[in-house]
Amino acid sequence: MTRERIREHVTANPGIHFNELTRSLDLAPGQVQYHIRKLKTNDAVVEEPLYGRTHYFTPEYDERERGALAVARRETARDVLVTLLIHGPNTPNAVAEEVDVARSTLEWHLDHLVEQGLVDKRRDERNRITLVLADPESTPGLIRTVEPSLYTQLVTRFSRLFDGMFAVDPRPTDG
């Protein structure tokens, strides 16, 4: 029963890390370790240590997908992706300000986002860096996978922005 709960939770939350798994299922760490070990032995779960955390996936995720999901599970990295999705290509300083983190913190997350192929750093002729989503078409799906409620907020925000750009003034004209 517990093992099945863990497997189902990993299936529903690919890339979940160990501490979040124990918290969300309200289980003791030793209990989760025991059942994870059994699930790994049966090839029902894959363990991937990335960026200081151990993440869990079902076997259908390949190495590239596991890396992308693991990094996107980090709140700051996810905020960077959302910022670039909403505002488009931007400077690191502007992104750091929008995400409300120190530039050094942003760079730590950017290193991993670039390593996983989610963000590109492009340099112009004056060697200034612009951050760009590497694959803007798949980024919303990645965000939806790791944070479904955030995806809903993003769609709502984008809809408001779009509506605001094309809103018709309801006041009558003297025409």
Description:
The chain has 175 residues and is an alpha+beta fold. It has two domains: 2-61, Winged helix-like DNA-binding domain superfamily/Winged helix DNA-binding domain (Arc Repressor Mutant, subunit A), CATH 1.10.10.10; 70-165, Arc Repressor Mutant, subunit A, CATH 1.10.10.10. The protein has helices spanning 2-12, 18-25, 29-41, 63-72, 75-87, 92-99, 103-115, 139-146, 148-165, and strands spanning 16-17, 46-50, 53-57, 119-123, 129-133. The model has no long low-confidence stretch (mean pLDDT 88).
Number of helices: 9
For the biggest β-sheet, the strand order reads 1-3-2
What is the H-and-E element order? HEHHEEHHHHEEHH
What helical percentage do the residues reach? 55-70%
Number of domains: 2
CATH topology name of the largest domain, in short, is Arc Repressor Mutant, subunit A
- Alpha-carbon Rg, integer: 20 Å
Terminal-residue CA separation = 71 Å
CATH superfamily of the largest domain: Winged helix-like DNA-binding domain superfamily/Winged helix DNA-binding domain
Name of the CATH class of the largest domain: Mainly Alpha
Shape type: elongated
Structural class comes to alpha+beta
CATH architectural type of the largest domain? Orthogonal Bundle
Number of beta strands: 5
The proportion of residues in beta strands is 5-15%
Features:
single chain; 175 residues; alpha+beta; Arc Repressor Mutant, subunit A; 2 domains; three-stranded antiparallel beta sheet; 5 strands
Outline the fold blueprint.
Blueprint: H1 2-12, E1 16-17, H2 18-25, H3 29-41, E2 46-50, E3 53-57, H4 63-72, H5 75-87, H6 92-99, H7 103-115, E4 119-123, E5 129-133, H8 139-146, H9 148-165
Antiparallel strand pairs: 1-3, 2-3, 4-5
Helix pairs in contact: 1-3, 5-6, 6-7, 8-9
